Each structure stands twice: as C-alpha cells, then as structure tokens.
Amino acid sequence: MNFLDILLIGFGFILSFVGLVGCVVPALPGTPLNFLALILLSFAKDWEPFSASFLVIMAVVAVVVSILDNVIPAWGAKKYGAEKTSVWMALAGTLVGIIFFPPFGIFIGAFVGALVGELLHGKEAMTALKAGWGVFVGTFLGIGIKLFASGIMFFYFIKEVF
User: Fold this and answer.
1) What is the pLDDT of residues 118-130, one digit of tens each?
2) Which pTM does this prediction carry?
3) pLDDT of residue 34 exceeding 90
4) Would you list the DSSP string of the chain?
C-alpha cells in the first residue's frame, strides 16, 4: 500500500465520520459522504473490497435516503396539519438548536420552530402543538433512517479497512 492509498483511506475515514455526524447536523449530507468514503476505499484498494452491484446499491440507498430526508419531515408536518411557514420555522429552529443546544437542539429546535410558526399563523395552542409534534416525529424519523443507512456504510468501510 502506497502513501496515496493510505491518504485516500484516511480521507475516507474522515468522510465516514463526518457523514455520521451529518446525519444529525442538517447542513452536512451524511449518507452521500459515507457513500463517497466507500468509493475512495474502493479506489485505494483497486476496486477489490466491494462489487459493482454493492456500490450501485449503496448509491441508490444514498440517493433515496437523501430524498427521504427532505420528504419525511414535510410529510410529518403535513400529516399533523402544519403550515409551510411552520416547516421553514422548524428548519430555522433546527439550525439554531444545533448551534446553541447540541446535540438535542436539533429536535427541540425543530419542535419549537414549528410551534412558533403555527402560533404566528393564529392557530390554537393544541393545533400548534400537534403540528410541532408532526415536525418532530418527521425529523426524528429522517435522522433515524440516515443513521441506519450511514451506519451500514460505515460498518462496511471499517470492515474492509481492517
């Protein structure tokens, strides 16, 4: 193994770790980073660790999870009657929460953001709470799906490195 291979594997490990963090931090594309780490590892090891079909499946998983990550919180919000503004407020709350109250701020911020958005729309407190709950559930479910997919990719990365 030469220096470039070691560098690629090291960078792949960093990408995998950042990918796992990205499952909870909204600004980072978690699952695609984990997939990129698999590609780097494959390149560094002359495409031996993973079959082409495995990499295609992981690519599809990364794309589907990325799409679901955007759809599920909106679905949760819509299911519980949240306004579009509340979904944007939930996103803003998530960012504020993750900055000022890590790691649980992502959930609390999303909930509070959606709640405030609904109250600003003139909804009653119970209706606003339901909408906030919907955003919370959607956000939590999206994070869970990302962590599951990224965790599997991280597992295979580590397994093939060692």
Assistant:
1) 888 888 888 888 8
2) 0.81
3) yes
4) --HHHHHHHHHHHHHHHHHHHHTTSTTS-HHHHHHHHHHHHHHHTTT-SS-HHHHHHHHHHHHHHHHHHHHHHHHHHHHTT--HHHHHHHHHHHHHHHHHSTTTHHHHHHHHHHHHHHHHTT--HHHHHHHHHHHHHHHHHHHHHHHHHHHHHHHHHHHHH-
